[in-house]
């Protein structure tokens, strides 16, 4: 198939997607790009902490650096069929997941569901002030009986100077590595995955070598029943050797049920332009309303990746979680191997085999396979 | 018999004086000229620019410079002179579209394909020995012609002779706006005015 006809099919796909109301949202952060010297998320994303709507530069990079193939203009919104005015940035993501896992009885269960279908827009005024928001739909089977139309993020972003950003609104608090894999120990395991966004006030400083952010976490005043924690986070990192970033984060969070301190170092290191390593370790002290003593524990996550050819990555992962040292059964361990493929701009395919031991359920390791299809625009 | 010749201290002293005399003669630099043709050498030209607002580091790279220079060695006034040309059309930053913008819209390499550094009588801090040597941290000021505009740049260089080759590592900074180039902007990233340049060459030399 020629690249021209591929592009034609891609534009048809987009048009169909649009008219089926199956419109997208936010692209995910890809911290592995540190291997090309991209140390700050705002190079590619509108959000200072990464993820979500791509900047114009991020779109271009998705073709030139991230994808195996791609033609000029292909990475633009709607393949360039519609060019929004300069003050308007449009984008979004659709992601589906097929998961095949082994139950405790040994039976295999397979499910396919829509993880995300959001549209995201940013309106920028005088290059300093942006209004950013997403609007999307949840999977109707997975979230049956709930309000399916949601806005995961909406915030005001002020950039009084190149290095300084002030953000107020609903978004994920800036803690640790912002990676797309949200169902892992350092995200879901710490109640910081997709769907746990809170209202925050964030101050950020981005430098060539150092970056910092401090966030006041205001919880979910619009829905107190969710018991989202309030508190604050601080995160900082240092960039060195053109391809290495190390940082540390701290969170204090409290709600009616518990309060916790969470602290840990993290790193995104590229040894070459092809070989990279992501790692995060977090120690948590959690004091629940019904506890007599504080619970101490930790989680870790590591991903070692290798870009075989441009756009095709082979990776291995390791996760460990033990959030209460005193609980002998409260431990999970996961090892995984996978492939990630970015064939052309707008498309990502990731598949992984994982084996997991959850001592609370069984001493046996159980396997699971998952395939994620991600269309970002 | 003259006992002085049998005195071992006298013999040792004579040998030491002879050795020192010969060494001193060898260390005295002769007036010579080392001609270096960069066209036959290898190396590269790199630049580092910072993109705002994300503090993005943009690393560019081009092939070895062309041209030639001469190192005139004398006891009183050792110096370096020559002209070095950089091909701007061959610069690459790792993103093809960004390169095209840089060359077509800002550097206008169609009209100004080459940048030239004119090294005129750059003073060397000391006279040079006959054999291999390394001189570091040599300050220089030289006119750089870029985009049809000539402005002086200041930098530091390291020069080393190794066998029949001359190795040069030089770095200098420039302001884009000094050369009638508007600040490059690509996909929302604007390049800061100051850019750092590094020149690395290793070329055969001829001593005259």
- How many strand segments of chain A? 17
Quaternary structure state of the chains depicted: heterodimer
How much β-strand is present in the residues of chain A? over 45%
Strands side by side in the biggest sheet of chain B: 1-4-5-6-7-8-9-12
Within CATH, the superfamily of chain A carries the name Porin
Name the overall outline of chain A. Answer: globular
The Rg value of chain B, from CA coordinates, equals: 24 Å
Taken in chain order, the helices and strands of chain A follow as: HHEEEEEEEEEEEEEEEEE
Beta fraction of the residues of chain B? over 45%
Structural class of chain A: mainly beta
**And the CATH topology of chain B?**
Lipocalin
Textual characterization of the structure:
- The complex is a heterodimer of chains A (377) and B (208).
- Chain A is mostly beta strands and 377 residues long.
- Chain A is 7% helix and 49% strand.
- The radius of gyration of chain A is 20 Å and the shape is globular.
- About 4% of the residues of chain A have low confidence.
- Helix content of chain B is 15%, strand content 53%.
- Chain B contains two helices and twelve strands; from the N terminus they run H-E-E-E-E-E-H-E-E-E-E-E-E-E.
- Chain B has an eight-stranded antiparallel beta barrel with strand order 1-4-5-6-7-8-9-12.
- In chain B, a hairpin with a 2-residue loop joins strand 7 and strand 8.
- The termini of chain B are far apart.
- At the A-B interface, helix 2 of A face strand 2, strand 3 and helix 2 of B.
């Amino acid at each position: 198939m020629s690249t021209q006809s591929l592009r034609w099919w891609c534009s048809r796909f987009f048009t169909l997607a649009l008219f089926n109301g199956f419109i997208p949202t936010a692209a995910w952060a890809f911290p592995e790009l540190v291997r090309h010297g991209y140390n700050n998320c705002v190079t590619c994303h509108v959000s200072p902490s990464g993820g979500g709507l791509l900047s114009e530069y991020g779109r271009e990079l998705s073709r030139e650096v991230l994808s195996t193939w791609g033609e000029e203009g292909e990475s633009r919104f709607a393949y360039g069929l519609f060019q929004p005015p300069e003050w308007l940035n449009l984008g979004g993501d659709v992601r589906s997941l097929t998961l095949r896992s082994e139950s405790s009885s040994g039976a295999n269960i397979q499910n396919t569901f829509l993880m995300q279908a959001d549209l995201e827009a940013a309106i920028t005024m005088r290059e300093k002030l942006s209004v950013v928001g997403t609007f999307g739909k949840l999977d109707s089977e997975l979230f049956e009986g709930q309000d399916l139309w949601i806005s995961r993020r909406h915030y005001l972003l002020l950039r009084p100077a190149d290095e300084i950003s002030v953000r107020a609104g609903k978004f994920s608090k800036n803690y640790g590595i912002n990676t797309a894999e949200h169902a892992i120990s350092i995200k879901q395991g710490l109640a910081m995955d997709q769907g746990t966004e809170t209202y925050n006030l964030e101050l950020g400083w981005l430098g060539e070598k150092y970056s910092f952010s401090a966030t006041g976490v205001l919880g979910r005043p619009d829905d107190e029943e969710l018991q989202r924690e309030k508190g604050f986070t601080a995160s900082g990192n240092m960039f060195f050797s053109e391809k290495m970033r190390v940082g540390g984060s701290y969170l204090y969070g409290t709600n009616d049920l518990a309060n916790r301190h969470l602290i840990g170092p993290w790193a995104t290191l590229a040894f070459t332009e092809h070989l990279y390593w992501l790692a995060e370790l977090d120690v948590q002290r959690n004091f629940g309303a019904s506890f007599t003593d504080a619970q101490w524990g930790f989680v870790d996550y590591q991903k070692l990746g290798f870009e075989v050819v441009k756009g095709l990555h082979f990776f291995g992962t390791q996760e460990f979680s033990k959030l209460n040292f005193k609980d002998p059964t409260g431990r999970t361990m996961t090892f995984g191997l996978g492939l990630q493929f970015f064939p052309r701009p707008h498309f990502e395919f990731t598949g992984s085999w994982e084996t997991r031991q959850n001592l609370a359920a069984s001493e046996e390791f159980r396997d699971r396979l998952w395939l994620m299809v991600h269309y970002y625009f | 018999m003259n006992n002085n010749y049998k005195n071992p201290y006298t013999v040792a002293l004579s040998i030491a004086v002879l050795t020192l005399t010969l060494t001193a003669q060898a260390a005295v630099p002769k007036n010579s000229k080392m001609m270096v043709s960069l066209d036959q050498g290898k190396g590269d030209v790199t630049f580092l620019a910072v993109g705002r607002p994300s503090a993005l580091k943009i690393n560019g790279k081009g092939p070895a410079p062309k041209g030639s220079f001469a190192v005139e060695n004398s006891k009183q006034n050792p110096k370096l002179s020559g002209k070095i040309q950089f091909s701007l059309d061959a610069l690459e930053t790792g993103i093809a579209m960004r390169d095209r913008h840089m060359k077509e819209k800002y550097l206008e390499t169609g009209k100004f394909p080459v940048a030239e550094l004119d090294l005129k009588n750059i003073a060397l801090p000391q006279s040079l020995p006959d054999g291999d040597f390394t001189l570091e941290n040599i300050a220089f000021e030289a006119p750089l012609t870029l985009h049809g505009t000539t402005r002086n740049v200041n930098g530091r260089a390291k020069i080393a002779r190794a066998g029949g080759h001359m190795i040069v590592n030089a770095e200098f900074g420039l302001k884009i706006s000094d050369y009638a180039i508007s600040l490059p902007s690509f996909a929302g990233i604007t390049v800061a005015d100051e850019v750092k340049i590094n020149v690395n060459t290793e070329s055969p030399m001829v001593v005259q």
